[in-house]
């Protein structure tokens, strides 16, 4: 079996011990933490598919979360170190109302911090008004909304409509991210950008902040 597929399959098959052993082996063999996370992500994508076609149940989704959490714990020391966050807040992030998925959001926040970007994390199940309040309180010029459930896409539109009703819309660049987002959803919600790749997300935020400067 290829070196990549072994971890993807261990995660997909919910073999926790095997997956964690592979993660430790890979990190010792100088595979980057991000590559490892990407392999795990391909694994949980399969978990999601099996859940959709009813081969897996909710308990299996929960198991995949447990595995991903342990993987992140192992990898944490190997990610680039956080820079001091003494400056002003650059970006406000949160998971949309009704949605409690946060592993992807937290990963992106981790990577943003590691390149010196100051993040204000609103957490999960964040109401539209809370996003607006977060932006007003911090003066951040970027907003990142994480959305994993397609039936919460309307909530994302509500957030952006609310921002448009305030006088913040011209000052804030809005990025949506998460498994289901695409060009159509971007257009429907009125976001400025969408992104599903962690690395690209960091590059995008860096570019936006530099432009605003
Ligand atoms: C783990 C998981 C859970 C865990 C979440 C744990 C947690 N703390 O996050 C638990 C078990 C709690 C869970 C619950 C549910 N889940 Co769930 N879950 C998953 C699963 C298997 C993996 C998600 C994940 O963590 N991926 C790994 C991370 C790293 O990837 P990511 O989130 O996509 O993030 C990456 C990018 O998208 C991007 N990104 C993410 N956010 C942002 C934000 C910004 C601003 C940017 C720039 C980028 C960005 O960067 C990340 C890094 O690359 C997915 C399957 C899938 N294919 O995604 C289903 C999935 C998302 N879940 C699903 C469902 C249905 C549910 C439940 C409704 C099940 C139920 N019956 O209760 C509940 C809903 C709970 C709720 N109210 O939110 C469905 C959604 C289907 C749909 N069309 O809406 C999926 C797709 C599974 C499926 N195929 O059916 N789930």
UniProtKB/TrEMBL annotation:
Gene3D superfamilies: Cobalamin-binding domain, Methionine synthase domain. Residues 88-213 form the B12-binding domain. InterPro entries: Cbl-bd_cap, Cobalamin-bd, Cobalamin-bd_sf, Met_Synthase/Corrinoid, Meth_synthase_dom. Keywords: Cobalt, Metal-binding. Residues 1-87 form the B12-binding N-terminal domain. GO terms for molecular function: cobalamin binding; metal ion binding; methionine synthase activity. Pfam families: B12-binding (PF02310), B12-binding_2 (PF02607). This is Methanogenic corrinoid protein MtbC1. It comes from Selenihalanaerobacter shriftii.
């Amino acid at each position: 079996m290829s070196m990549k597929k072994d971890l993807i399959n261990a995660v997909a098959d919910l073999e926790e011990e095997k997956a964690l052993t592979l993660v430790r082996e890979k990190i010792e063999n100088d595979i980057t933490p991000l590559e490892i996370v990407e392999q795990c992500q391909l694994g949980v994508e399969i978990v999601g598919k099996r859940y959709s076609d009813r081969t897996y149940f909710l308990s299996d989704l929960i198991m995949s979360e447990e595995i991903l959490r342990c993987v992140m714990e192992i990898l944490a020391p190997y990610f680039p170190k956080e820079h001091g966050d003494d400056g002003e807040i650059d970006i406000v992030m949160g998971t949309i109302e009704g949605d409690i998925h946060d592993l992807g959001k937290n990963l992106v926040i981790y990577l943003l911090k590691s390149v010196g970007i100051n993040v204000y994390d609103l957490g999960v199940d964040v109401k539209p008004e809370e996003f607006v309040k977060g932006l007003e309180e911090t003066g951040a010029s970027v907003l990142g909304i994480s959305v994993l459930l397609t039936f919460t896409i309307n909530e994302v539109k509500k957030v952006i409509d609310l921002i448009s009703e305030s006088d913040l819309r011209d000052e804030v660049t809005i990025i949506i991210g998460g498994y289901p987002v695409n060009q159509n959803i971007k257009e429907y919600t009125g976001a400025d950008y969408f992104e599903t790749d962690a690395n690209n997300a960091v590059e995008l935020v860096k570019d936006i902040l530099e432009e605003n400067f």
